[in-house]
Write a structure and sequence with these properties.
Two copies of one chain form a homodimer. The first copy, chain A, is built from 17 helices and 30 strands. Chain A is of the alpha/beta class. Chain A has three domains: 4-207 and 369-449, Metallo-beta-lactamase, Chain A (4-Layer Sandwich), CATH 3.60.15; 212-359, Metallo-hydrolase/oxidoreductase (Rossmann fold, 3-Layer(aba) Sandwich), CATH 3.40.50.10710; 465-554, Roll (Ubiquitin-like (UB roll)), CATH 3.10.20.580. In chain A, the strands form six sheets. Chain A has an eight-stranded mixed beta sheet. In chain A, strands 10-11-12-13-14-21-23 form a seven-stranded mixed beta sheet. In chain A, strand 13, helix 5 (180-188) and strand 14 (193-199) form a beta-alpha-beta unit. The termini of chain A are far apart. Chains A and B meet through helix 11, helix 13, helix 14, strand 28 and strand 29 of A and helix 11, helix 13, helix 14, strand 28 and strand 29 of B. Chains A, B: Keywords: Exonuclease, Hydrolase, Metal-binding, Nuclease, RNA-binding, Zinc.
Chain lengths: 558, 558
């Protein structure tokens, strides 16, 4: 059978988060595979209460692990590496990454007791990593974390460029600049670029993206204008931003104090891996507390309103001996990710109540995006001249808009969402398979399927409350007269002001006294009847039907 | 004792939503009172799962209802009238409103079996409503609903202007235009304006607000450019927007079909009360389904992503015989309220999957805000020339910014959040009391306090899952050997792949067999020990500690 080139997203296509893209080459069903990135997304109370992390269901890949040559990591953001600690054991394939990214991945491997030596550090193009039928090169590209890379994936069926996350920043403050000449060289080699798998995050932003460098002056001016303590928060992984903020502190005579584990770790890794070379000396919180307030800048975690991060702790009062006061200034040098508005707002309002001046980046002075805007995406199209564009890293809306753009420019383009296997061998890509995909939830220390019902039950409990009924049936199949009802997450009063649990009990007792022997002997019938009565009584009294759990205990003759 | 003028927000000050502002005049503790507005805010899964509506805790006002002269309603938005049906019975005071607003309030009263005749319809200034020491006039002002009004509240201690929600729109398409000359007349009468209680929602928007009228051309051009079915959603209460959209339909040869109960009701009330005079004839969904797709415009509810509204239903497939297809167009002529981003995004992506072109108002072409921006607020300051500005209708951040603005302009200003009683008698307002306030949750048909623990328990159930343990103690205080464990919202497997519930049972049985008589006789000790073991075992096996409910049944000798 003829060999083919396939593309199969397991995560990240039709959503922003948990990126995991498979490429394969070989005879159908026997393709040798590589995986690009293995990230997470974050749970929330609305869709996944109690779940910290969500990752792609890689069952298909696990079943085909004997065909998996390697995992290539484009950059160190959690939505690209966050699942490695949890899922690598199921795949057991060598990992490739550049130094900074690889250091972050190694830390993750160690954290989960996995072999850090599985992570191979590679240098950028022209270094080539050969795995099976794939020759892979790392192409430095700019993003909001150091060392983000596009991948050139050369296959017998042609050249793929997988952008990873990128922006077209030629003055990124720190790390790799966008290199248009380099990209046009990639397009000029051999048969050029057959397939471009391309970041779609900012496809709806119609103005050209702005460089990280434009923030230096506004941030410096802002810091210099503040009379007292200055606090700034951004993603810890945005090392360029940390540097801009720290440089502004130094230039205005302030000492920098890093607060939050991620902040300290990221600066450490950036130093050790050589991407960060010049950063002011930092001080600890004790020292910061002793200095005059106008001599300190705190760089803190928690720009997305995370409850346990430094920003939230500071907003609630004292944190590591530091507290904010009337006249202090707090800068969110960040964009609030959709869904986090309320958490971020809560912190901003708490700071406001303490008299702190809160500044956000809404006017564009103190934050730039890490993703390519529409004209930037077009520039990359034009430089790489791919014959086929596959939009990735986006919700369906983004993928669709990117597809329409690519088609309007005369390129072939398809929307490929998670689980669709695309055959890229010929000139016209076609979907050749649908693979079962989905989401895995990390719950405590277990990975559960999103469709297992566990989380659905939790949502029901949260919406409806829980009534528990315990009934005892004696040795002679006689129900003992008292049903016992416990309520949780429900109002405890009846309409008339009585006790709701006792009222349900008495209604149940009435039924149980009259229940015939056939019903009493049948757990299923008992359960159904008790559930129905409980819900009915609750509906009458409080206007809602709770979840009901019935426990029937049958006494045995000694 | 000298008489005094007081201001006491019970809701809406320190939050956007559930507006309820009390003014009083008289001897301290004996002031005669009026209430301005009585609104709701909406619950969400994160903070209040299972709760549909949240309203201010008016306990203080209920205790002082003998002093309450009247309730004045500024306009018909739910955050200003939504609690009337639920709370009016506790206050039993006459309600005043203009015709359109009053009609909406009367419908609410009827819906809850309350006397619609308690609602008095008043005309705008110069009509004066005299209640106790207050002379109240309605001042037409523009907003995103017809007939929004500011109130002039004249008291022996001076004139208050309470803006309600407003924008400074001189061409509002429909309803009252902003009237700067009228405002300056209000300032010129008598001693002028002592206190301005003023909307703060858009204090952070630095450009002048835009008129509703600027949307007509872009919306018409947009509708005309669409090849197939057109759907548009906005708040049903934004009757001016409905008219703009419907006029665009008519001008482009499309019939208008209203989908969603609120949409039909609002148009009806607008007609009946005379604020809407010219609106195209509408057709029903059956007729819409029969017409060519390019001859129809659906005006639908659900611009905020509400699950049961028409937008959501259409995004999920067929609704009332209508379904959307490749090439149809869907316009969100609305701003997404913070917190609703994910719900709105879900609908947009579902539409995108169906091939529908989705348009939002991000570029400003298809939506304008209903609130005054910072320069507009300044214009109102300048026209009314108040001596004291009280920022209201805003989160703490907004109130603080508005206060700083007012002070910078030389006026006296204080942040007054819910529950603070401000004495406004003299030149310098001062907080003279703190009143217990809070939130009431509508749960099913009951109103429960937000701090009652019911919702806190639900959140715990959702985050942690629920383990129920049933234990039976016999007539001789001997524990029957089998504990029964039921789990809900928890993974069901142990680390080793066994059944978690059975595993907890066997661990509990071990304890129960060894438990001494004193423990067994003591419900409290049993409960504590069983809870502890259950949580410990779960922690070991699944890495999380569930909520635990223990039911101990004690058999009695016959």
């Amino acid at each position: 059978m003829a060999e083919r080139l396939i593309y199969l997203p397991l995560g990240g296509a039709g959503e922003i988060g948990m990126n995991a893209y498979v490429y394969g080459y070989g005879q159908p069903g026997k393709e040798r595979l590589i995986l690009v990135d293995l990230g997470v997304t974050f749970g929330d109370m609305e869709g996944s209460p109690g779940i910290d992390l969500i990752m792609p269901d890689i069952t298909w890949l696990e079943q085909n692990r004997h065909r998996l040559e390697a995992i290539f990591v484009t950059h160190g953001h959690e939505d690209h590496i966050g699942a490695i600690g949890h899922l690598w054991g199921r795949l057991d394939a060598p990992i490739y990454a550049r130094r900074f990214t690889g250091t972050l991945v190694r830390l993750k491997m160690e954290e989960y007791g996995l072999p850090a030596e599985a992570v191979n550090i590679v240098a950028p193009r022209p270094e080539v990593t050969q795995v099976g039928p794939f020759s892979v090169q790392y192409v430095p590209i700019s993003h909001s974390i150091p060392e983000s890379s596009a991948l050139i994936i050369d296959t017998p069926a042609g050249r793929i460029v997988h952008t990873g996350d990128f922006k077209t920043d030629v003055t990124p403050v720190l790390g790799d600049a966008f290199d248009p000449v380099g990209l046009s060289e990639i397009a000029a080699e051999g048969d050029g670029v057959k397939v471009l798998a391309c970041d779609s995050t900012n496809i709806f932003s119609t103005h050209p993206g702005r460089s990280e460098a434009v923030l230096a002056t506004p941030i410096l001016e802002w810091v210099m204008a503040q009379p007292n303590m200055v606090v700034a928060t951004t993603f810890a992984s945005n090392v360029a931003r940390l540097k801009t903020l720290a440089d502004a502190a130094r230039a205005s005579g302030r000492k920098v104090c890093l607060l939050g584990r991620a902040m300290r770790r990221m600066v450490g890794v950036a130093f050790d891996s050589g991407v960060l070379k010049d950063f002011p000396d930092t001080i600890g919180p004790e020292e910061a507390a002793k200095l005059p307030r106008n001599k300190v800048l705190l760089l803190v975690t928690g720009s997305q309103g995370e409850r346990r991060a430094a920003s939230a702790q500071l907003s609630r009062g004292r944190y590591l001996g530091l507290s904010l006061k009337e006249g202090d200034s707090f800068l969110f040098s960040s964009k609030t990710i959709p869904g986090n508005e309320k958490s971020v707002g809560r912190i901003m309002n708490a700071l406001s109540e303490a008299g702190v001046e809160v500044y956000d980046a809404d006017d564009g002075l103190y934050h730039v995006s890490g993703h390519a805007n529409r004209p930037d995406i077009e520039a990359v199209h034009d430089l790489l001249k791919p014959r086929i564009v596959i939009p990735m890293h986006g919700e369906h809306l983004h993928l669709r808009e990117h597809m329409l753009l690519a088609r309007a420019k005369g390129m072939t383009s398809e929307i490929v969402t998670n689980g669709k296997m695309l055959d890229l061998t010929g000139d016209r890509p076609k979907v050749v398979d649908h693979v079962e995909t989905g989401r895995l939830y990390l719950d405590g220390n277990q990975l559960i399927g999103s469709m297992d019902g566990v989380v659905r039950d939790r949502i029901r409990l949260a919406l409806n409350g829980h009534a528990m009924v315990s009934v005892i049936v004696d040795e002679d199949d006689k129900v003992l007269p008292d049903a016992w009802v416990e309520l949780m997450g429900l109002p405890d009063k009846t309409r008339a002001g009585g006790d709701l649990a006792r009222h349900v009990e008495s209604e149940l007792s009435e039924f149980l006294e009259r229940a015939d022997a056939r019903t009493v002997r049948d757990d299923g019938k008992m359960d159904e009847a008790i559930r129905k009565i409980t819900r009915q009584v609750a509906m009458e009294e409080i206007g809602k039907k709770p979840e009901v759990t019935v426990i029937i205990s049958r006494l045995m003759a000694d």
